[in-house]
């Protein structure tokens, strides 16, 4: 469903390619989502975190799992072992609370309050 939402605007869920891109997303999410937005309790997990879809889908192993741009998970960015093989057939979200964000596997059918889309060839 999140993939479709990005597709409506000619985009796809974001692929996080390296530590710099992850840092930029965390800074933007912290500034916009965490510090300047109020979410109803139904949009937060039990710990008060907001979770936002990114374009990572884990199948059963690192070598059969992919980012939305086609990059295999075992060949891409994996901050501090954030991609967990314990959760097969999961999609990933960034969760944020105050000044910290991390990655978290989620059932792909979960409804989350946000998503991060990217448009190929566009830099803002």
Task: Offer a quick outline of the entry.
The chain is of the alpha+beta class and 124 residues long. The chain has helices at 2-7, 19-36, and strands at residues 12-13, 50-58, 66-67, 90-97, 100-107, 114-115, 117-118.
What descriptors fit this protein?
alpha+beta; 124 residues; Mannose-Binding Protein A, Chain A; C-type_lectin-like; CTDL_fold; C-type_lectin-like/link_sf; 7 strands; 2 helices; two-stranded antiparallel sheet; C-type lectin domain-containing protein; 5-stranded mixed sheet; globular
Q: Determine the mean pLDDT.
A: 85
Q: In the CATH hierarchy, what is the architecture at level 2?
A: Roll
Query: Helices and strands, in N-to-C order?
Result: HEHEEEEEE
**Unreliable segments (pLDDT under 50, ≥5 consecutive)?**
none
Proportion in β-strands: 25-35%
- Supply the CATH class: Alpha Beta
In percent, how helical is the residue content? 10-25%
Pfam families: Lectin_C
Protein name: C-type lectin domain-containing protein
InterPro entries: C-type_lectin-like, C-type_lectin-like/link_sf, CTDL_fold
Domain C-type lectin: 1-108
Lay out the secondary structure:
Layout: H1 2-7, E1 12-13, H2 19-36, E2 50-58, E3 66-67, E4 90-97, E5 100-107, E6 114-115, E7 117-118
Parallel strand pairs: 2-6
Antiparallel strand pairs: 1-7, 2-3, 2-4, 4-5
Q: Mind explaining what this structure looks like?
A:
- This is C-type lectin domain-containing protein.
- InterPro entries: C-type_lectin-like (IPR001304), C-type_lectin-like/link_sf (IPR016186), CTDL_fold (IPR016187).
- The chain has a single domain (about 1-120), classed as Roll (Mannose-Binding Protein A, Chain A).
- Helix content is about 20%, strand content about 25%.
- The protein contains two helices and seven strands, in the order αβαββββββ.
- It has helices at about 1-5, 20-35, and strands spanning about 10-15, 50-60, 65, 90-95, 100-105, 115, 115-120.
- The strands form two sheets. Strands 2, 3, 4, 5 and 6 form a five-stranded mixed beta sheet that branches. A two-stranded antiparallel sheet has the order 1-7.
- β2 (about 50-60) and β3 (about 65) form a beta hairpin.
- The mean pLDDT is about 85.
């Amino acid at each position: 469903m999140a993939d479709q939402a990005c597709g409506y605007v000619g985009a796809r869920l974001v692929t996080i390619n390296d530590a710099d891109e992850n840092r930029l997303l965390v800074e933007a999410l912290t500034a916009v989502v965490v510090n300047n937005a109020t979410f109803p309790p139904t949009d937060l997990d039990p710990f008060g975190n907001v979770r936002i879809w990114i374009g990572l889908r884990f199948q059963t192993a690192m070598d059969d799992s992919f980012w939305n741009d086609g990059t295999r998970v075992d060949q891409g960015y994996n901050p501090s072992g954030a991609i967990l093989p314990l959760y097969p057939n999961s999609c990933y979200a960034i969760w944020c609370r105050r000044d910290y964000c991390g990655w978290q596997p989620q059932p792909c059918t979960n409804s989350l309050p946000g998503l991060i889309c990217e448009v190929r060839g566009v830099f803002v």
